[in-house]
Write a structure and sequence with these properties.
Structural class: alpha+beta
CATH class: Alpha Beta
Largest sheet: 3 strands, mixed
Number of helices: 2
Distance between the termini: 17 Å
Mean pLDDT: 95
CATH topology: Ribosomal Protein S5, domain 2
Radius of gyration: 12 Å
Strand order of the largest sheet: 1-3-2
Number of domains: 1
Helix content: 40-55%
Low-confidence stretches: none
Length: 79
């Protein structure tokens, strides 16, 4: 899940609750989200981006997650 608010500068936050799993799984989920954000960071417009990891994030492949986030960015009008 991605929340976006338009601002002049780019900021990001990554959240994973205990519903995602133990600390290893939560950190893995946040690392994956962070890596995808860095990959698209240059093409995004300024704003505050908050990524919330859901329970099913660890069962999805990296490519599927990347495509889903790219679709979300396009839907939000960030790209």
């Amino acid at each position: 899940m991605i929340f976006y608010k338009a601002t002049d500068e780019k900021k990001s936050g990554f959240i994973a609750s205990k519903k995602v799993g133990n600390s290893v799984k939560r950190n893995l989920a946040k690392r994956r989200l962070r890596a995808i954000f860095v990959e698209f960071c240059d093409t995004l417009i300024g704003g505050t981006y908050i990524f919330v990891a859901k329970e099913s994030i660890n069962s999805v492949s990296y490519e599927e997650l990347k495509n889903s986030i790219l679709w979300s960015f396009k839907k939000l009008g960030c790209i």
